[in-house]
## 1
Amino acid sequence: MAETSEAKGPRHVAVIMDGNGRWAQMRGRPRLFGHHAGAKRVREVVEACPALGVKYLTVFAFSTENWKRTQTEVAGLMKLFRRYIEKEQRALVEAGVRVRFIGDRVKLEDKLVALMDELELLTAGNDLIHLTIAINYGGRNEVTRAAKRMAFEVQAGRLRPEDVDAETLARFLDTHVLPDPDLVIRTSGEARISNFLLWQSAYSEYEFVETLWPDFTAEEFGKIVKSYAARDRRFGAVRV
Ligand code: FPP
């Protein structure tokens, strides 16, 4: 994959991959069939990033609320994540993709966490595109964990409460090494944030599309990314 840059294009795109279940149900198949179809789309979108100048891609794979689904679906998704990492590992390393995971790992099974750690380590030297996968991720959970870690730092005397500002808190977030997303895309026609990157998307542009995630192509991704350049981002300031 060759690296090119696009003037004014989004550097960091985050995606809420929604609609897998409905896509499967419309075909009379179990919901997991939709998740498997959805997983295939991730590779296509990752591969489209360099030519579009997108350096960072963050995808929402499993939320802190998704545990409420049936045991079959949750177990199937966890197995899918394990298989995905095992299957894609080599291609990701060779394609120059640096993979990171965000979210609370405490509730995840050891086998999966070991694979996540391994993939992060194996791709640590890559820099062409930074793919972040959110598993057991929730924005409130992330900010709460960050606040707790910060409180421990204060208690240990390593941080003075009067020095705490927004940048200090951001350093304790899972995303501390990532820029904030410029653009957040949600598929499947729902216009909600659903606890995704709450802190980080304060000034992001949002794009809600009707397409169900398993039907979302690199072409549609490219169109949305290109149309972003026409937007006027002011970050609360007035136009000059
Ligand atoms: C939301 O659709 C999707 C999920 C909860 C799972 C997302 C997982 C993948 C796309 C596959 C794995 C990805 C990686 C990176 C390994 P939904 O089930 O809520 O759909 P619905 O709203 O139609 O029910």
Note: The chain has a mean pLDDT of 95.
## 2
Amino acid sequence: MQILVTGGAGYIGSHLVLALLRAGHDVRVLDDLRAGHAQALDRVAELAGRSAEFVRADVADVPRVVDALDGVHLVYHLAGSKAVGESMGFPERYFQNNLGGMAGLLTAMRQVGVDRIIFSSSAAVYGAEAEMPLSEGATHGPANPYALTKAQGEQMLAWMAERCGWSAVSLRYFNPVGADASGRIGECCAEPTNLVPRVLQALTGDIPHVAIFGEDYDTPDGTCLRDYIHISDLADAHLAALDALERPGHHIYNVGTGRPYSVREVIDGCSRVAGRPVPFVRGDRRPGDAPVAVADPRRFADDLGFRAERGLDQMLESAWRWVTENPRGYAG
Ligand code: UD1
């Protein structure tokens, strides 16, 4: 089956492309390389023993996307911007990149008659007051422009399903962590803001220490709890989601493990894996952080048989291998 992956040269995209190639699919990647890396696709080809085709283009560029859809049966739409802090400073970038990108893609798909899509959404769509664990029906309340674009992207797909008979899936990712077991592909970002990349930077000396954002939450050790999922499990989840496309309509699934870990547990895990203590300081709470965010993963398990298999140690070991074996990311 010929598949188009937008954003396929990024962190999640490269792991997805590897999983799709290994499963025998033909893959074309559309990426403008704003955040992605062409070298990631070279390494994916080494690992899979075959290549994805690559088209360098913006997903909002309708004529280019129309060309890229030639012969395609379905689309994974991962291209987009994902930094919450940046979205607070530059909301219009998120409207342009994420909503404009989605509108361009849908226009091109309609033009050529491709009507099956799997969308990279986020647990960020849930409101701060939602009950834990988060089921797909929990209250919405996007707290920042990034989250709003994910919620609205889902709504666009709901309308395409309703009005045009499309099959669409929105996967609400929790916290993706780790790297392919080979250590050849991983997360490559100059100034990461997420917890695990920051902890690893503190371990390698790229930053003097990581700050723990609050130790006075109402949680067992006072630090926030999150649902971390191994990037390779997340990639596998995208393959499991294919079966949902057999049913018309818009289907929404949480992609998490249902097992939360605290910031302290993650830091301790990284110390264990690296064999030395993580330099950290106690910081203030980060505005907008929920004390707990954990998935109820049952719908995905019940409908499609998906269960994440890898635990926290595998996430952290693989992430550590990636940073130590690739100190300059894809540059060296
Ligand atoms: C964040 C976004 C979320 C987005 C996701 C994408 C916010 C509020 N949420 O999720 O919308 O979908 O990234 O990957 O930005 N922490 C520290 N020190 C650090 C960094 C993080 O203590 O230097 C803590 C945070 O307070 C949080 C936990 O680690 O409790 C995880 O943080 P992070 O990796 O940024 O993910 P989320 O906040 O869950």
Note: Residues 82, 84, 122, 124, 147, 175, 193-195, 198, 210-213, 224, 226, 263, 286, 288-289, 293 surround uridine-diphosphate-N-acetylglucosamine (CB under 6 Å).
